[in-house]
Specification:
Pfam families: FHA, Pkinase. This is CBN-FARS-2 protein. The protein is α+β, with helices and mostly antiparallel strands and 471 residues long. Strand 11 and strand 12 form a beta hairpin. Helix 5 packs across helix 11. The strands form five sheets. It has a six-stranded antiparallel sheet, with no helix packed on it. It folds into three domains: 109 residues, Tumour Suppressor Smad4, CATH 2.60.200.20; 90 residues, Phosphorylase Kinase, domain 1 (2-Layer Sandwich), CATH 3.30.200; 180 residues, Transferase(Phosphotransferase), domain 1, CATH 1.10.510. The longest helix is centred in the middle third of the chain and has 21 residues. The radius of gyration is 25 Å and the shape is elongated.
Length: 471
Amino acid sequence: MVRGTKRRRSPVEKPKAVALNRDDTILVDEDDVAVGDSQCPSTKSYARLVGIRRGVATIDLTDDNFVCGRGSEDATVNYNFSALVHDAGLYRFISKIQFAINRDADTRRVYLHDHSRNGTLVNQEMLGKGQSRELNNGDLISIGIPALIIFVYETADDNQYPEELVRKYHVTTHSLGKGGFGKVLLGYKRSDRSVVAIKCLNTQYSTRCSRAIAKARDIRNEVEVMKKLSHPNIVAIYDWITVSKYSYMVIEYVGGGEFFSKVVDSKYQRMGLGESLGKYFAYQLIDAVMYLHSVGICHRDIKPENILCTDKSERCILKLTDFGMAKTTAMSKMKTRCGTPSYNAPEIVANEGVEYTPKVDIWSLGCVLFITFSGYPPFSEEYTDMSMENQVMKGRLVFHSQWRHITLETQNMIKWMLTVEPTNRPSAVELMSTEWMKCADCRTAKQDIAKSLAKPVARFCATTTKMISFP
């Protein structure tokens, strides 16, 4: 996960704190988006602008030239955004003529021309006044700043995704992340245009590219695990659609990016988030893990990249995600070596074929919280005085100067979670029962979680159109 430091010659050197580096694509940050009313002209359209912010209409494009903006006596527009006049955060960015949609009469290609002072963005890239860009199905159109998404451009003849998926959802071209098995794209439900994340997984059998292929049984396992879960700090699943070569998981859209990005944010100067903010997040994560273990689920891959933020505010709600390696503990024993090496518990690293318990999640969570409070990882290949495997097996921790600002009580909690012997390591219930979890910051986190529950959550409705088969 961390790279680039030259090895020192001394075998007994004191390891220095190393900076964290992202080993996967960082999720794109977004603000919440909502929906408005729809316009329905009678003539046949060649495309539509789907409004995905409250007060923004859905517009069927029938004319080769269509102009959007605030409009005025000397600036005629086809759509004037009048419903947004009370949305000061957005309306102030809109020019009299914001942009124009033009379809070339010969090529039939569609272009967006930016006429605004504050600028129009396509897929979060600023065009700038006087600039143009061709539009493709699924492109996002924002005004002023990337987060102010107002439209998704949708063509009338989209055949990129299977009918079983596009009948209920529109899939945009906006990437929320990418992994070895596929990608995560922003989408929305056609029924109410609420925003979702669509995880597209390649399940096509291939001997040459086997590492880039998701196994059907692993996908089914992840779906079955997520269907059992309902917790405010865990990403929800809404739908599952499979076809011959691909599987699509429709999950909760979480727009604040990865927790990893927050931990390495330059405003914290790589010194950790501090005692107060660290406890605020610790409560949420411990509560989520306590819930998982109470329903017989072990995550087995807890790390900052698998924790999402609901928004970009400093104190936000966290969501645990990516249950591809999760295991239902009541169904079978856990012996497989899996997860991310720098977050793996000693009993997984040892790989002796001995059964381990859900306490491996407590170790991983201890690593996450160590980074949260300090800004550097407890175990790393860049600590060259000993191998990372030995660091983990010995439970060797080095506390640098930033820990001077963290109480001994918190340091002892982290050490307790990173106890090598599993039987001496606390359970999530034991952690939650400590006085450490009864502080003002933890109470605030509990109250904020309760407030988040007031928002409606869609229920899972699985749709399996065709079971995956392999030759």
